[in-house]
């Protein structure tokens, strides 16, 4: 895992602002821990939309079209959450997301959840590229690797 001291806002091309809603907090006014995975999912949707816009500028398309056009989909395989500091009701968070690793058939999105300039939470979700016809994981197409690599400000590890 990347240490937060090595992460800066400039490493990310996609940053989604989010205001913590009342129902996401517990009785102590702190965000319930499972909601951080929901926040990472919100950020990943914006990331995939931006990746599609980068790959096909000026075209209208679905968020996951990049994968579906190649006959595959992605499925979450693993997630880990590094809780650093609490978010509270009505806080405004910046959800900064990037691809931090690309493997043979998978890639990992890193979401740094920031309150002002402090990283309060770091989420890593690994997605596997899945061949729907064969009903099994498959090698990530080189075209997707190239798009991700060219999109990112910081090269993903392998």
Radius of gyration: 16 Å
Count of helix runs: 3
Shape label: globular
Largest sheet: 6 strands, antiparallel
> Are there runs of 5+ residues with pLDDT below 50, and where?
none
Structure in a nutshell:
The protein has 158 residues and is of the alpha+beta class.
Protein described:
By secondary structure, the chain is of the alpha+beta class. Helices cover 22% and strands 35% of the residues. It has three helices and six strands. Strands 1, 2, 3, 4, 5 and 6 form a six-stranded antiparallel β-sheet that branches. A hairpin with a 3-residue loop joins β3 and β4. The protein starts with 13 loop residues before the first strand and ends in a 7-residue tail after the last helix. The mean pLDDT is 92.
Offer a few descriptive terms.
single chain; 158 residues; alpha+beta; 6-stranded antiparallel sheet; 3 helices; 6 strands; 35% strand; globular
Topology (SSEs and partners):
Elements: E1 14-19, H1 35-55, H2 65-68, E2 72-83, E3 92-102, E4 106-115, E5 118-131, E6 136-137, H3 142-151
Antiparallel strand pairs: 1-3, 2-5, 3-4, 4-5, 5-6
